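Attaching the record inline, Q. Sequence:
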Amino acid sequence: MSPAGRRFDQQMAQQLSQESHLIIISGHYEGVDHRVIEHLIDLEISIGDYVLTNGAIAAVVLVDSIVRLLPGTLGHEQSAADDSFSNGLLEAPQYTGRPTSVVGKFRRFCSPEITQKSRSGVKSRQSSAPVRIARIYAEVAQSTFGAASH
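Structure, as predicted:
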């Protein structure tokens, strides 16, 4: 784990999940001795441009995102394939439980009508693709132009 490493993303998680074993070396405070990097490290990985108190936190992020891609880890084999970033899109919004939720004393928030038609309240697979595309578009617009696109 290194801030100078290749940026970790879902595609790298997928690639690393195919390996038979991984050894993760992460530093504390100032990182890993450069001689170790020069002679023992095959791939330096960064989880982003920010500072953590130690590399173990970054290693946990790496391990969690890789392990969830291994067969049998999640309850349903399709779960990892439908997640955000698995196909380049963000996952559709989640609506669970009741069609109307009361937050605080006076606020009521309703889920979209399409989720209310389902007995379980689970999102409709047919409606999720356009929503996923709209969410990724909004994220790109926000990061590029600094303004929300609604």
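Residues 125-145 form the longest helix (21 residues). The chain has two domains: 6-67, 89-145.

More tomorrow.
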